[in-house]
Amino acid sequence: MAQILQFFILSSYFIYATSNNIPESYIIYMGSTSNELDGNSKSTDEAHLQMLSSIIPSEEKGRVSIIHSYSHAFKGFSAMLTEKEANTLSGHDGVVRVFPDNILQLHTTRSWDFLEAESGLGSGRTHRKASNDVIIGIIDTGIWPESKSFDDTGMSAIPSRWKGICMEGSDFKKSDCNRKLIGARYYKNLADSVHTSSLGSPRDSVGHGTHTSSTAAGSIVANASYYGLAQGMAKGGSPSSRLAMYKACSMGGCSSSAVLKAIDDAVNDGVDIISISIGMSSIFQSDFLSDPIAIGAFHANERGVLVICSGGNDGPDPYTVVNAAPWILTVGASSIDRTFQSSIVLGNGKILKGVAINFSNLTHSQFYPLIFGRDGAAASTPVSEASNCYPGSLDLEKTTGKIVVCVDTDPSVSRRIKKMVAEGSQAKGLILVDESERGVPFDSGSFPFSEVGNSAGAQILDYLNSTSKPTAIILATEDLKEYKPAPVVAYFSARGPGGLTEGILKPDIMAPGVGILAAAMPVADPGTDLPAGKKISNFAIKSGTSMACPHVAGAAAFIRSAHPRWSPSMIRSALMTTATATNNLGKPITTNSGGNANYHDMGSGEMSPLRALSPGLVFETTTQDYLQFLCYYGYKDQVIRKLLGTNFSCSGKASANLISNINYPSISVARLGGNRGAQTTVSRTVINVGPSNSTYTATVDAPAGFLVSVLPNKLVFAKRGVKASYKVKFDVRNANKGYGFGSVNWSDGAHLVRTVFAVNVA
Question: What are the positions of the active site (predicted)?
Fold first, then answer.
């Protein structure tokens, strides 16, 4: 045993040692271009090549080449380097960071009607004020330009400020762009080495980018549906806005260097908003200056471009939210008031309401034998594996022609695999008992499938044990509207607090991300089973924070069209402080488990675009605020100077405690009590964007044991555009340990400005 262990240790060391000498793609980040005129790209590339030549051995001069060059919003390039060369280059003057070019992952109709209805401000108002001068850049898997969602009928000429291009490819022409889809680019992507079908064109080869683009700004399409489900009018959040696609992803993911290049180009092209449904794993988060999305978003924000990102799908555990830099608008996912119900009828007449998308041909006329997975176990198979529908765990002789019941006590086997296992065992259908995932519909095509929670699952198992010949049927899916309660926080939606800092409350906001109908590729979408005898649908139903992110991008474009002079942080503030924390029953929003959601689950709450048009007061977070954040976080002066290219100096010592004072539209105190004492005060500054001669009075919603005071508790504004500051004091001497959640609410009688807070009592 010792010899085997020694062999593995030596092998690991050998692999590590040799891997250090294998060239891999690295990103060399060199800070801002804000203090420079647009330089000569040719001379910039020559300087970068000279830098590479100084560290790469002469006998390997073939490696002296640039993969991507960044020169618009920020400086830098990507290249093939060994680990030793990367370390050497990191000490070069003018280099902020050198880090590996990792692969980032994709975070994968009625939703807009639901948001409008929830605002309580009447129907049909969402698109009346919108202009078509707002440009949304989507960084994703490409786009299918022929979709009706990208029709430009009735749109005016492309804004003259637009500097972007429509890149041609093997299956994409310049004529595929129009007055709706005004730009399209594609990039060399490390992930394409595995999935080469996506090379050489802005055309979507996955379906993700087409879906997110149409969600954000798709044109109005009547009679849209997914094989009759979710039927109605499909539209984006801002159907009058323009779209520009930046294809940096494929089925294999998105290389960091391509995403950075896409952000750099998008800012230079003239987009107003960037939507990114991509992110790192919550387990392996990089610090803010080694995270390509955080770097790109920082410089985009410098140029007045709002960057909106999905928070990730690693929920419901805490500390799973990603894309959590304070200059990013981070989005969680919620359900809407529509569900896809697939009823299960038991042989005793009981009907249970499951959730799924299935186009089953089963009817009430014929029932089928019902069997629990463990009772259909193959020889020598552990009962737990058969109960969970593990591959190879079921015996055909026991399951053929029967409806199988499986559980999800081991989530390592996905629903798709369980369904394939049931199909492979020649079962007539599958009932899955899964409390967490039951709220997110799984598409099983024509195979009869339905998912229920623990309560319904217990009733099914009781019935199985009550008779010697249990039977059941699974009916085809029905589309149920005005479902209650809604919204509900999606189980998969990543949760706060942020893993890198708890001084900023993340996610920022929540938007529809469950069962969203939007445009699809008219080719087979990987992983989707088509209903028998049906052509490929022009629309698809998808779930994920990927779907929530473009909802917020569309809403932000809507606000930008009404307030073109607002900064990115003002738009974010308007969305956050007007978000709602109640559902369509008038009760607090809940999580998928039924408990009340807190602000780490849902951010400030469910966005309300109509309310955000007139927020009353806004919090403007400036570049100076973000620089102070970097100081408080612990970055050294010289690093921040390289970042900016200026003589910036931090004021005071680095202290994570001071992060709570950044002028943010929410408040988070990472630790209060213990050695710090049980009291702290944070400050905020607001701008009046409402009427002149307004007086706002503060009220506080605080948890038990919290004493929260606001000074002053009254703000008077003589005219629009005036600023006012206030302080919020927290006293938690009598509070329970752990996080407490509440809000500071300012009202002038017409507006309600809600600033949510999370305070961790030590």
Answer: 140, 208, 546
- For residue 497, whether the previous peptide bond is cis, meaning omega lies within 30 degrees of 0, is yes
Per the annotation, the verdict on 543 as an active-site residue is no
Query: Are residues 363 and 465 part of one domain?
Result: yes
Instruction: Compute the distance between CA of residue 48 and CA of residue 66 in angstroms, rounded to an integer.
Output: 8
Question: In this structure, are 136 and 246 located in the same domain?
Answer: yes
> What's the confidence (pLDDT) of residue 562?
94
Residues in contact with 484: Cβ distance below 8 Å, sequence separation at least 6, in sequence order = 337, 583, 584, 585
- For residue 172, pLDDT over 60 is answered with yes
The pLDDT score that the predictor gives to residue 526 is: 57
Tokens describing residue 631: 């100081």
- The helix/strand/coil state of 204 is coil
- 462 belongs to a structural domain: yes
293 by Cβ neighbours in 10 Å (0-12 / 13-18 / 19+) ranks as buried
Same domain, 330 and 352: no
- Encode burial over 608-617: b for 16+ CB neighbours within 10 A, e otherwise: bbbbbbbbbb
Pairing of strands 679-688, 617-618: antiparallel
Give the residue from 531, 523, 575 showing the smallest Cα distance to 329: 575
Of 156-160, 287-291, 410-414, 467-471, least confident by mean pLDDT is: 410-414
Catalytic residue among 133, 140, 269, 508: 140
> In this structure, are 678 and 712 located in the same domain?
yes
E strand or H helix that includes residue 32? strand 24-32
CATH number of the domain where residue 756 is located: 2.60.40.2310
Any idea how long the chain is? 762
Q: Are residues 506 and 608 in the same domain?
A: yes
pLDDT in tens, 423-465: 999 999 999 999 988 889 999 999 999 999 999 999 999 999 9
Run of H or E including 215: helix 208-217
Q: Kindly state whether residue 290 falls inside one of the protein's structural domains.
A: yes
How much is the pLDDT for 3?
A: 43
Q: Is 140 known to be catalytic?
A: yes
Measure Cα distances from 509 to 228, 517, 581 in Å.
Answer: 31, 21, 10
pLDDT at 193: 57
CA 90 to the chain's CA centroid: 31
Its domain, for residue 93, covers 2-101
Rounded to the nearest angstrom, the gap between the alpha carbon of residue 110 and the centroid of all alpha carbons in its chain is 19
ω into 526 cis (within 30 of 0): no
100-110 per-residue burial string, b: 16 or more CB within 10 A, e: under 16:
bbbbbbbbbbb
Q: Which of 447, 481, 515 is the last residue of a domain?
A: 481
For 481-519, write each residue's pLDDT tens digit: 889 999 999 999 999 999 999 999 999 999 999 999 999
pLDDT average, residue stretch 560-574: 97
pTM for this predicted structure: 0.91
Selected catalytic residue, list 48, 68, 208, 551: 208
Does residue 534 have a pLDDT over 90?
A: no
Catalytic residue among 546, 567, 660, 743: 546
**Boundary-marking domain end, from 74, 101, 128:** 101
pLDDT for position 34: 61
Pair (379, 455) in one structural domain = yes
Is 208 among the residues known to form the active site? yes
Whether residue 633 lies inside any domain: the answer is no
Structure tokens at 663: 């002028």
Looking at the structure, do residues 442 and 348 belong to the same domain, yes or no?
yes
Count the domains in the chain: 4
* Pair (498, 520) in one structural domain: yes
Could you read off the pLDDT of 679-713 as tens digits, one per residue?
A: 999 999 999 999 999 999 999 999 999 999 999 99
Is a pLDDT exceeding 50 seen at residue 123?
A: no
Closest C-alpha to 744, from 691, 636, 667: 667
- CATH for 406: 3.50.30.30
What does each C-alpha distance from 363 to 322, 345, 475, 634, 717 come to in angstroms?
45, 10, 6, 64, 66
Give tens-digit pLDDT for 236-262. 989 999 999 999 999 888 999 999 999
